[in-house]
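Consider the tokenized backbone below.
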């Protein structure tokens, strides 16, 4: 498994204008950050106050009818990241569009009438979603003339889905704890000989991120942890638990954390220090071109938060 590193979430970076992408990547590189996580999902033009051009999801209205515009944007981002010696973590779907949580309802949301529980328990959905993942990893990036699955020079990991299953059916628990391993096992059949890692994509909380089924799954190379707790003891306890559970060939990443106050730099500093002690790579949410003191977004112009990244990034 790779050594300790730092990264950031910037789930819509591929939709930003080229100059904005280059500025962010340059400043991240200067801070010692080496990974960026993005999503294959819709993003509106001008979203979050940025100059984003926007993009539709890969399967916006009909399952299996692929619109590769988003993959073309990602192709270009990969080429730019390669110049900065940085790698992408590519999350291939977002659980939250299944139930139209933020005003986006994709083809799976439409098919299952916003019923995410049905999606996670229908064999037909398994087949269709596995085909989506296969379509992405076999997509050929024209800048490298290479399929994503063989682009380990710029692609660190592909992720099954962001925060799959959420907190479960009506918050009452997960209804298919084998879903991650089943999807990863199917995906690995498309990735023979690949050095690109396969990651869970995280759970919504520490408890849903730390499923023993995922640590016991040979097809999962990375178990990603998500939590927006503000208790540093809780962070340390769960990172220690993750280290005790991981397989000999697995990596653990604290992939989503953050704070929606003007003092987010202090929290990022504290979490990064603890994660480094446990030799767990870390990625705060999230980098944008716009500072939002009372939200989770921050930009290179937020000097205090950027200093926290630079101070704690492994060098």
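A designed sequence for it:
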């Amino acid at each position: 498994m790779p050594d300790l590193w730092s990264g950031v979430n910037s789930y819509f970076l591929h939709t930003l204008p080229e100059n904005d992408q280059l500025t962010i990547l340059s400043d991240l590189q200067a801070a010692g950050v080496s990974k960026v996580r993005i999503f294959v999902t819709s993003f509106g033009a001008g979203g979050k106050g940025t100059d984003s051009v926007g993009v539709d999801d890969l399967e916006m209205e009909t399952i299996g009818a692929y619109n590769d515009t988003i993959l073309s944007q990602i192709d270009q981002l990969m080429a730019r990241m390669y110049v900065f010696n940085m790698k992408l973590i590519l999350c291939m779907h977002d659980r939250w569009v299944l139930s139209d949580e933020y005003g986006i309802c994709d083809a799976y949301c439409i098919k299952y009438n916003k019923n995410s529980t049905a999606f996670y328990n229908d064999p037909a959905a398994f087949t269709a979603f596995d085909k989506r993942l296969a379509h992405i990893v076999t997509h050929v990036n024209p800048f490298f003339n290479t399929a994503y699955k063989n682009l380990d020079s710029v692609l660190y990991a592909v992720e099954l889905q962001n925060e799959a299953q959420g907190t479960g059916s009506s918050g009452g628990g997960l209804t298919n704890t084998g879903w991650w391993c089943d999807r990863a096992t199917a995906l690995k059949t498309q990735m023979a000989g690949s050095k690109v890692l396969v990651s869970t994509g995280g759970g919504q909380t520490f408890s849903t991120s730390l499923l023993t089924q995922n640590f016991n799954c040979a097809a999962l190379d990375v178990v990603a942890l998500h939590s927006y707790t503000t208790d540093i003891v809780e962070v340390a306890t769960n990172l220690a638990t993750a280290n005790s559970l991981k397989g000999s060939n697995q990596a653990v990443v604290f992939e989503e954390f953050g704070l929606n106050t003007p003092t987010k730099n202090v929290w990022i500093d504290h979490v990064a220090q603890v994660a480094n002690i446990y030799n767990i790579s870390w990625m705060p949410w999230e980098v944008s071109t716009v500072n939002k003191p009372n939200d989770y977004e921050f930009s290179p112009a937020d000097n205090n938060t950027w200093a926290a990244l630079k101070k704690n990034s492994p060098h």
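The two ends are 17 Å apart (CA to CA).
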